[in-house]
Amino acid sequence: MDNILVTENIVKNFGDFRALNNVSIEVPEQSIFGLLGPNGAGKTTLIRIINQITLPDEGKIFFNGKALQPNDVHFIGYLPEERGLYKRMKVGEQSIYLAQLKGLSKNEAKKRLKYWFDKFEIGDWWNKKVEELSKGMAQKVQFIVTVLHEPKLLIFDEPFSGFDPINANLIKDEILRLRDKGATIIFSTHRMESVEELCEYIALIDRSNKILDGKLIDIKKQFKTNSFEVGLVTDEKDKLMQEISQKFSVSNAEFKSLEDDLKLRINLSNGDTSTDLIKYLNKRALINHYVEVIPTANDIFIQAVKQNS
């Protein structure tokens, strides 16, 4: 798969503080790419450099196979975490103005805005001032003006901030639809459930350094701990718990109050395999639940940052 965006060894200093230290990422075309990291890690600085709001001190950026150029701004849409609508301007007037800054004619802007305002059922907001809108309503407007010029690359910084669950799902569905139509999406978020649902690729930045990147599914495999969640039916819970604890590393034991089920998380070590575990348990109880524990994006985030500290 071709990469629409590549950064090579990006360095950015603010005085004596190094905000980015040789950060390189590759964003595949028509993918959803999660740019992750703790507060202050350097994510927003990298996003601002990609958008040419600020320049790197060292390193190169390639967009669509060529060195990034000033006019590439017309092919990139950016929704910053700190929203920037003019509060006293009317929604329609402001939306047309922002669309024209991205290269659309006034007539084409009106045509596309009508489509989006009808789609989001917000046509009656056209003559309202932004200051009359709730935070979530204003976020919808800013989302629309971000995607209106149909850019090849969309960059969303905390795109679900301020949305209730219904509107968050609406935006999520639109992000997926835009990807399916050919756009590439980079989004930065602290909502790991959104990363799980949307991202095919991730990069994790911590303390100005990239510490992890790649396909999310491959990274999950790297962080597996050979753990299994098992549900057992037995009349001898205490005895079985003692036996299993002597042979395996066991955590999170739970007893169900109305049934004879024993729920365990078993961590295999010392060369034991899942086949060994199943054979062992089959001789001692009825297995009614057995699944490998795959680390979540949240688990990976926490573990990788701890390892880097």
Describe the structure.
By secondary structure, the chain is of the alpha/beta class. It has two domains: 3-221, 3-Layer(aba) Sandwich (Rossmann fold), CATH 3.40.50.300; 225-293, Alpha-Beta Plaits (2-Layer Sandwich). Helix content is 35%, strand content 30%. Helix 2 (91-101) crosses helix 3 and helix 2 runs parallel beside helix 4. It is elongated. The mean pLDDT is 90.
Number of helices: 10
The CATH first-level class of the largest domain comes to Alpha Beta
Structural class: alpha/beta
Strand order of the main beta sheet, please?
Answer: 6-7-8-3-9-10
Overall pLDDT score: 90
Helix content: 25-40%
Order of helices and strands: EEEHEEEHHHEHEHEEHEHEEHEH
Work out the strand percent: 25-35%
**How many β-strand runs?**
14
**Biggest β-sheet: count, sense, barrel?**
6 strands, mixed
Q: In the CATH hierarchy, what is the superfamily of the largest domain?
A: P-loop containing nucleotide triphosphate hydrolases
Total domain count: 2
Q: Cα distance, first to last residue?
A: 34 Å
